[in-house]
């Protein structure tokens, strides 16, 4: 480094707050600080601003109906269709030839769908689904990687009023079956395979294996042919080729079904404390308004932008900020099929340069990987088209934030560190990029209209600097309405901890730890339940544990997270072999396979540690904290409250040796 670079680095390292550049503020969608006070004064009518970003078939009568708390309803009486909001209205308003989706495959091939073309394709596929018997309110499962047919199928479902349930393509056959069973879904759209690091990956075999585990009859399966000759596969009687069906329905016109604002738009399964994934229900009016509003106010998206969120559509981030939010605003949204280091570690920067991307939204785990690879990769590219950067999924450490700010944003782009969840539908805690000072490592204040705070175990707000828990006192339009077919679990999971039903006080508990500073900025500390955050993905420790104890020869297991330089958190499995079995390569491989089969490669353990006992408290509870500290290499402190303190050193010794 030159002397100048060294002093620049030093200055950046010490700087604790950053203001948005004037040039950004001047052009921002939202730049008046009064918005916070306005939302507070006008609450809940302030949320009309979100609803106003959409076109309604019939106007709603009530902004918020809180008659049956916490089963809140938003924009009641209103009717709309999500696909019409994402497509038809833009075409009608003259944007027929604007690019809606720009897709790039891993091998370098590209496809662009203009709004006009996307509408045609969505109508043809909606006609196909209708022909196959899909009716309003039928749940259609979509098990596809990052190919354009995924958002096309989502919008086709939305057009018919059939809720979709997207299952992340990296999930296993078992995970697909569990989700199809839970949603009683009779339709599946999937594909033959896709590319990963240049290899053609077989996906259809996994889908077929999953279908074997579905307990009800699956009437139709549509298979997209992504790989052509690179993978040959045969179709069963109820399986149909996507291209053939769409060709048959080319030119079809399918009226978008007017949905009640509270009708379900989609289901998204997410990990919780128990082994059973939770089916988070999102609605048409509230969710779509909220996705559009946060895309407008936080991501500052304009129709003429090229916007790129590098998440996978199989997660909520992709739903809200690759598909629904950006398309509702009529912008150009990018999709990339593959990995960021294929064929070289500058792939993402090349995509940004080539497409003149204006706004880029990614995860801290990706940024940590970019940092590790080195600044020379972005430096080879002209990234000057970028105006705003964002992160989501996990806490970002100040060092990664500053690297992103300097080496990707050239110190000219504000960064929004957006805290939210599958359940919240959209962003909740983040700076507004033209209004607030940024503090690396801290997400920022709650968005206007979001009544979030940090409280102690008794529900009292904590003092600045003290750790506590995030809670949200007032409802918001994008919130989940319930867990599918399970109102009781919805109440237990989110509303039990801090609510006082007798006093009619309902407080949403997201199960995240946090602290707050004197300016009201919230720093998220991480999950406080048994959910891990591995590379920004939520994984339930119970799901992994039940996979491991299903292995013959394993008696008991505990799964915890340990610190990981790139993934943030990594999976550590501690397992006790049954009598007559010995922990070793064989049992380790079996445990890994079991995890792969029940969840998928994202849950691959960093290490499987065999031990004759697990550290337990005198009352017999597994000391997870201690296992986490061992995995992270932290100081272990006192183990005197344990029933079996001697086991700790033995385990720690093994982890070090691993
Ligand atoms: C959008 C998404 C939700 C959990 C959430 C929290 C963590 C998300 C974060 C963050 C710190 C951020 N999380 N964004 N932690 N800073 N900016 O990720 O949804 O997959 O449901 O995960 O992710 O722990 O509770 P989801």
Automatic annotation (TrEMBL):
Its EC number is 6.2.1.1. One of its GO terms (biological process) is carbon fixation by 3-hydroxypropionate cycle. Residues 90-476 form the AMP-dependent synthetase/ligase domain. SUPFAM superfamilies: Acetyl-CoA synthetase-like. Residues 543-621 form the AMP-binding enzyme C-terminal domain. InterPro entries: Ac_CoA_lig, ACAS_N, AMP-bd_C, AMP-bd_C_sf, AMP-binding_CS, AMP-dep_synth/lig_dom, ANL_N_sf. Residues 1-24 are annotated as: Disordered. Keywords: ATP-binding, Ligase, Nucleotide-binding. Gene3D superfamilies: 3.30.300.30, N-terminal domain of ligase-like. Residues 34-86 form the Acetyl-coenzyme A synthetase N-terminal domain. GO terms for molecular function: 3-hydroxypropionyl-CoA synthetase activity; acetate-CoA ligase activity; AMP binding; ATP binding. Belongs to the ATP-dependent AMP-binding enzyme family. PANTHER family: ACETYL-COENZYME A SYNTHETASE, ACETYL-COENZYME A SYNTHETASE 1. This is Acetate--CoA ligase. It comes from Natronolimnobius baerhuensis.
